[in-house]
Specification:
elongated; single chain; 2 domains; about 170 residues; mainly alpha
Length: about 170
């Protein structure tokens, strides 16, 4: 392990006892072989660790704890929707133009999709009606084998053509 890394670890995790076993072992091995890092460790211990350990624990005044408790209580009592208006205001204040643009785009897309669906449905219905009229016409002309049974329909074919024209002019 290099000295720079060891010195960094000495000022952070090593002193706090937060290193994992393998890294701590590597730091200790380096300290055994490197005089410069041992001197650095002693300086850190003297200037940062020992003064803090020797310092007396002070209790904060009672009013500090009361203020903390009050702040926590107010935060809890305001509920889930606390500050929602402010947060929503911040969200929509700056990018209003973007929001309007996205909204308009979505409306256009929805109307285009709905319009296309109506067109596709109408087109499918028209194709189905044309196919059925063509089939019945072929039956009445005898151009389809086995259509003799359908030749009796006569007037019904004319009624079907009228119905077809009615549906073609109707928007579904």
């Amino acid at each position: 392990m290099k000295c720079d890394k060891v010195k960094e670890l000495l000022t952070t995790d090593y002193i706090d006892g937060e290193l994992n076993g393998a890294t701590e072992k590597l730091v200790k091995q380096h300290l055994e072989s490197c005089v410069s890092c041992r001197v650095f460790e002693a300086a850190v211990q003297k200037s940062a660790v020992k003064p803090l350990k020797a310092a007396a624990q002070k209790e904060p005044p009672a009013y500090v704890w009361e203020r903390i408790k009050q702040a926590v209580y107010e935060e809890k009592s305001s509920g889930v929707f606390s500050g929602l208006k402010e947060r929503l205001g911040e969200l929509f204040a700056a990018p209003r133009l973007r929001l309007v643009a996205v909204t308009v785009a979505m409306v256009v897309i929805v109307f285009a999709f709905v319009g296309y669906q109506r067109y596709a449905d109408q087109r499918a219905l028209d194709m189905y009606i044309d196919e059925q009229v063509s089939f019945l016409s072929d039956l009445s002309n005898g151009s389809i084998n086995g259509g003799e049974d359908y030749l009796e329909m006569g007037d019904e074919l004319d009624n079907f053509a009228v119905t077809r024209n009615f549906f073609k002019g109707r928007v579904v």
